[in-house]
Design a protein that fits this description.
It is built from four helices and 18 strands. It is mostly beta strands. The protein has two domains: about 170 residues; about 110 residues, Jelly Rolls, CATH 2.60.120. Strands 1, 4, 5, 6, 7, 8, 9 and 10 form an eight-stranded antiparallel sheet that branches. It has a four-stranded antiparallel sheet with strand order 11-18-13-16, with no helix packed on it.
Length: about 300
């Protein structure tokens, strides 16, 4: 699987940060602004919404593409001075609220809303007299005057993230919407197991072995048998050969040319690897000696 683009690595990391309170309550004072993010940044006990964002870039080795500042107004002025200011949301951009009041990271957008996640914020629907106390996700109207604009960073690999900007200088085409969703995990399989035993395979005749249902690693919904599959045969009583042909795409793709394989009593089983793309539905065996066989594969966990 190819490596994800830098913008995706960044927002995946932001998404992985648990949403909860990170500060400590001090009687008579309130929330103390002391967090693990302030410790990472090197300045604690101060408003930390911009600090949180720098930490997110730092965690994935991209802190060089944004300024190290705790001041929201400096994020905006830096973006404007470096040609990275936009009135449109893009994934991974830094949303500036109230010009210098607050900032959060864009995790998605559509025609009407921008979806963000940020530090030194409060849970949606909660109130804390404007202090902020943790990391939380929010939804905002894109055209709310409180949404001032966005710092749209240039990611190191040069790939433009999903953007609403019809003239994004990073080169990406505008899209109508994008929302973060968790990456799809590769299917998990138990170790090799016997899926089906075959009846005795006679010498001197064609025996067709169906390999349906043809589920695959990339399309496990194809059937109960998933992932890599092997056809295992062994000679019975004497050494010989077996011609193997494979039929693709339910016959529409035709039969492949027969391939000869030696089989021997002493050499044990012959293992024939079947394609993992689900294209083969029948294997034809034509042995010169009787065979026994079975199909093995990996079932989903």
């Amino acid at each position: 699987m190819p490596n994800p683009p830098d913008w995706r690595r960044f927002v995946d990391h932001v998404a992985s940060i648990p949403e909860r309170v990170y500060e400590h309550w001090v009687a008579g004072v309130g929330w103390d602004n002391v967090t693990q993010f302030g410790a990472e940044y090197g300045w604690n006990g101060v408003p930390w919404c911009a600090i949180f964002e720098w930490c997110m870039f730092h965690d994935v080795g991209m802190d060089a593409i944004v300024p190290k500042t705790a001041a929201v107004a400096e994020l905006m002025s830096w973006a404007q001075a470096h040609g990275q200011w936009s009135e449109y949301p893009s994934v991974g951009a830094l949303t500036i609220f109230g010009a210098d009041v607050h900032t959060e990271i864009v995790m998605g957008f559509d025609a009407d809303s921008v979806y963000t996640k940020g530090g030194n914020s409060i849970q949606a629907g909660a109130t804390d007299n404007g202090q902020g106390n943790g990391v939380w996700s929010h939804q905002h109207a894109r055209r709310d005057p409180y949404v001032t604009g966005y710092l749209a960073p240039r990611f190191p690999d040069g790939v433009c993230p999903p953007t609403a900007d019809p003239a994004d200088p990073r080169g990406g085409a505008a899209v109508a919407s994008w929302r973060w969703t968790a990456p799809v995990a590769a299917p998990a399989f138990v170790e090799e197991t016997v899926l089906a035993y075959l009846p005795p395979i006679p010498a001197g005749a064609d025996t067709d072995v169906p390999v349906e249902p043809a589920g695959t690693e990339t399309a496990p919904a194809g059937g109960a048998r998933n992932g890599p599959m092997w056809l295992c045969v062994s000679a019975q009583g004497a050494d010989g050969n077996v011609a193997v042909s494979m039929r693709r795409s339910g016959g529409a793709g035709g039969w492949g040319a027969p391939v000869e394989h030696p089989v021997g009593v002493a050499s044990g089983k012959l293992v024939l690897t079947l394609p993992t793309d689900g294209s083969v539905d029948v294997v034809r065996l034509h042995p010169t000696v009787p065979l026994q066989g079975y199909v093995t594969g990996r079932q989903p966990v």
